[in-house]
Design goal:
5 helices; elongated
Length: about 170
């Protein structure tokens, strides 16, 4: 693994993780755009007393895209938040069992539920060609809602990659 050297190599998982990490690094550039949009909005608001609603909405959307794509990136790099009070002292096999159970009982059901509901959420928004309620807001709100199933699909792929890695490592005895 490129980002997380602490986990032993499992070729299929490594390939999936690298793919997701490349997407995450690419999408992270939206934060540069976000900073530029914020600077422009501040200049317009403070310097010219005229901020734009579209820029404000764009800020929300760029931030949301970065966070949502960041979920799968964090999963593949093992940089998500966890409480390691006891976990760090467990044997490797115990850690793998905890990861497997956590993924199967907690994470995968959550990801599947959010993914399935977000597809309907996106479809309904697309069907009515939803846009901002503000007259000067952004059109095509459905495009932003379409990011939700895409990112949760990637998160599901990242979680399945981790599940596969932990099962392989458990049976390898690593």
């Amino acid at each position: 693994m490129t980002e997380n050297e602490s986990l032993p190599s499992v070729p299929l998982s490594d390939t999936i993780d690298r793919f997701i990490q490349r997407i995450g690094v690419t999408v992270a550039w939206c934060y540069v755009l976000l900073v530029l949009v914020i600077i422009l909005q501040v200049i317009l608001r403070k310097g010219f007393s005229n901020g734009l609603v579209a820029l404000e909405e764009l800020q929300w959307h760029l931030y949301a895209v970065g966070v949502m794509f960041g979920l799968s990136y964090a999963q593949t790099t093992n940089s998500h938040i966890r409480v390691d009070l006891f976990y760090s002292h467990f044997r490797a096999s115990t850690k793998h069992i905890i990861e497997i159970l956590g993924i199967l009982i907690l994470v995968l059901p959550f990801v599947v539920i959010i993914f399935l509901h977000s597809v309907d959420f996106f479809y309904e928004s697309y069907r009515i060609n939803e846009s901002s309620e503000s007259p000067s807001g952004l059109p095509y709100l459905w495009a932003m809602k379409g990011v939700i199933p895409v990112t949760f699909g990637l998160l599901g792929l990242a979680v399945l990659s981790r599940l596969y890695r932990d099962v392989v490592l458990l049976f390898r005895g690593e």
